[in-house]
What we know:
Largest sheet: 4 strands, mixed
Structural class: mainly alpha
Number of strands: 4
Shape: elongated
Strand content: 5-15%
Number of helices: 18
Distance between the termini: 29 Å
Helix content: 55-70%
Amino acid sequence: MKAQKKYEYRPDYAVPPGQTLREVMESLEMTQKEFAIRTGLTVQSLNRIFKGEQPISYESANRFELATGTPASFWNNLEAQYQEQKAKVEEARRLEKDLEWLKTIPVKELQDRGILSGTENKLALLREALAFYGVGSVDAWREIWEKPAIAARRSQCFESQPGSASAWIRQGEIQAHEKACKPFDRVSFLKALKKIRSLTKESPEKFEPAMRKLCAGAGVAVSLVREMKKVPWNGATKWITPQKAMILLSLRGKGEDKFWFSFFHEAGHVLNDSKKDLLINDGSKDDRREVRANEFASDFLIPAGYDGHIRAVRSREEILGLARDLDIAPGIVAGRFQFLTGQWDHYRDLIRTLKWK
C-alpha cells in the first residue's frame, strides 16, 4: 500500500488566550468584577484581554496564577502561541495577493528536483518558494531579481524568464553557501587552475571532487546545477561575499570540451571582473567582459600558438599527440579543431560526454 503524503494543518484563525481565561474565571464562579478586584486589573482591561485586543503580560500572568491556581507559564505560553498564530494568519492574508507569482517561477521543475514539495496548498507552496529564495515577500524577490541592475546584465533571459533564470542561479548560490572555502586569494586560484587543467584528462569521478577542493582552497565555490528549461546558459559567476566567489556550471551541450571551456571562462571572470556583477555565460559576444573571459579560457586551455597545428590536423593520432604535448584531455583538442575548422563531425568520438549522476 502506498502511503499518502500528509500535510501540516494550518488553521486560518487564531484563538485569543482571553477566551480560556474567561472559561477558567467562570469555572471558579467568579464575576468579571470580582476577578478584576482579585487580579488588580480593571474590568476594561479584562474585556480587552478576553477579546485578544490586549496581550497577557508577564505581570498579569503572575496575578492570574495567584487568582486561579493555573501556572503563569500556562498563560505566557498561551499568549505566545496566540501571537504566533495571529502572525501566521496575517501573513497568509498578505501572501494571498501574491499567489499569481507562483506562475512565473518553474514550480514543477523545482518540485521534480525535491526543492519544493508537492503540496496542493498554494499558500504553503508560496512560503516554500520564498524560503527557497531566502526572501520574506514577493516584493523582496522582485527587488533582488527583477530590478534593472540585474535584468540589464547582458542576458535577455532575465527579462523574458526571470523566474527560471533566478531559480537556476539560486540553486547555485545555495550550494556555494554550503561549501566551506578559504578567503579568496588570486595567486592560490591561479595555481589551482593550473592543477585543474591537468585534471581534464581524468574521469569525472576523479576530477569533480578534486576541482571543487582546489577551488575552495583558493576562495572559490564551484556549484554544479542541472540546466533548466528556458535557461540556455553554460555558466555564471557571482561573488557570494567579498572573499568568496561562486562559479556555477551546467552540463549544457554535455561535451567535456564545452564544460571545461565554460569553467575556465568563469574563472576568467573571477580573476578579471568586478565583484559587484552577476556575470552570465549565455554565448553573447557584445560584452567586452565576455569576450575577455573567452580569450582567457581559450589561451589557458590551449595557447593560441597551437591553433595553426590544430587546424592542420589530419588524423586521430595527431589529436592524441597534441593532447599529450599539451598535457590536456584529447577531447579539448578535438573541440578546438572543430571550432577552428567548422568541421563539427570530425573526431567527435574523442570528446567524452558528461552526464549527471
